[in-house]
Amino acid sequence: MFESLLKQSYTYIFCALNRLGGILLSFLLLLFMGIACTKDEPAVAKTNTITLSSQTFGSQPYYSMGYSFEKKGFYQRLSSGSEIDIYLAEVVNPMGDLIAVQFSTNTISESTFGFYLNNTFADSSAASEFYKNYTLAVFPEYSSLTEPIKEFQVYTFKTWKKNYVKFWIKEMRIFYIGDRAEYFDVDIEFLIQRDGSENLLN
């Protein structure tokens, strides 16, 4: 009778372990499948906000920072190569006073494209609404250096990798030392389409 009870106990324990192992194995399989599915999902284009600045750093030669839409990062303009897609170029009057900034891009021979101004709006609401509803790239012409920029403008840019970017100017700020303008900061919101198509859906 004791042996019979012992066998029953072993059988019960064995079955319980098998059941627990099966549950654990199923959980691990589901977890693995979830990770695999997540990796296979295509990247969703997202809108981003950055601040461009004409502020200079270092000591001769001075340098400012540019931004790469492709690499999503800021780079020094001294040794950036092809990384920089956009930076601020300062405009000064004959007296040497800073009065405006322009968008500029690094020129890389035949692979350089540039900026197209879609429209200039009276306020942020109108510019933001146009930007959100602007879903198919319009790029009939371009320039590697824009006219002096203004708040609430919407632009299309084509990178050296031939991907379209839409962006709009949310705010511009001027920083002074005394009465003299020292540099500009410009906030832009952008979206880059990384498949080379004209589709600019958010």
Map the helices and strands:
Elements: H1 2-40, E1 48-53, E2 65-68, E3 73-76, E4 87-92, E5 98-104, E6 115-120, H2 124-133, E7 153-158, E8 164-177, E9 180-192
Antiparallel strand pairs: 1-9, 2-3, 4-5, 6-7, 7-8, 8-9
Provide a concise account of the structure shown.
With 202 residues, the protein is α+β, with helices and mostly antiparallel strands. It has two helices and nine strands.
- Contiguous uncertain segments of 5+ residues: 12-17, 23-44
Order of helices and strands: HEEEEEEHEEE
Strand portion, in percent?
A: 25-35%
Fraction of helical residues: 10-25%
User: N- to C-terminal separation?
Assistant: 74 Å
Anisotropy-based shape:
globular
With helices defined by DSSP (H or I, 4 residues minimum), what is the helix count?
A: 2
Major sheet description: 5 strands, antiparallel
Secondary structure category? alpha+beta
The radius of gyration is 28 Å
Strand order of the largest sheet: 1-9-8-7-6
Mean pLDDT: 82
The total of beta strands comes to 9
Description:
The protein is an alpha+beta fold. It is 24% helix and 33% strand. It contains 2 helices and 9 strands; from the N terminus they run H-E-E-E-E-E-E-H-E-E-E. The protein has helices spanning 2-40, 124-133; strands at residues 48-53, 65-68, 73-76, 87-92, 98-104, 115-120, 153-158, 164-177, 180-192. Strand 2 (65-68) and strand 3 form a beta hairpin. It is globular and about 45 Å long.
